[in-house]
Design goal:
Elements (H helix, E strand, L loop, with lengths): L1 H23 L18 E4 L11 E10 L2 E10 L6 H4 L3 E13 L2 E9 L15 E11 L3 E6 L5 E9 L8
Antiparallel strand pairs: 1-2, 1-8, 2-3, 3-4, 4-5, 5-6, 6-7, 7-8
Protein name: Fumarate hydratase
Organism: Pedobacter frigidisoli
């Protein structure tokens, strides 16, 4: 009889324990809203020129739009060497687009994006790159109108100037 009363006591505590579980767990659901991103990055940033571009066999000019935690990239590549079929080469100048999210941790910018068409709809075939655009950049300098990034994959510096400030208006996911 004594053993039965102990087990019944714990049985009555079980619903109370399940009630407290969400409050005590370290995990919580994320809100169903877009993240705020970094305030200093909000805006349209252009790389107006690439250092030593006249001496490089290929280079890419970067154009970033940061809005909340989203990033939109326009990449203009100039190449003296044809890496693609002739119909794609376009006299050595072509544009690629990507859309995704970014995060800043310490002095590093992480970009996770997908190559898209010019309308930022996913690209699954065609000329140039398809699939993921995953890059990490070291933030070398940041000010109200200048952002200097260094690609962690090829150590090329990207000097961006702010063309237009953007205000983050978070959207539902």
């Amino acid at each position: 009889m004594f053993g039965v009363s102990i087990s019944l006591r714990y049985f009555y505590l079980l619903p109370f324990a399940f009630y407290l579980l969400p409050f005590l767990s370290s995990c919580s659901p994320r809100p169903n809203i877009q993240g705020k991103g970094e305030a200093f990055m909000q805006g349209i940033w252009n790389e107006d020129s690439v250092a030593y571009s006249n001496k490089l066999s290929n280079y890419t000019q970067h154009h970033f739009k940061f809005t909340c935690d989203s990033v939109y990239l326009d990449l203009v590549t100039h190449s003296k060497v044809n890496f693609y079929e002739d119909s794609c080469y376009n006299k050595g100048v072509w544009k690629e687009y990507a859309k995704g999210v970014y995060a800043v941790r310490g002095d590093t910018l992480f970009v996770g994006a997908t190559f898209t068409h010019a309308n930022y709809k996913q690209k699954i075939s065609g000329c140039y790159r398809i699939g993921r655009y995953d890059k990490n950049f070291l933030i070398k300098k940041k000010s109200t109108d200048t952002l200097v990034l260094e690609s962690m994959s090829d150590q090329r510096q990207i000097k961006l100037s702010l063309k237009e400030k953007v205000t983050c208006v978070q959207k539902e996911l």
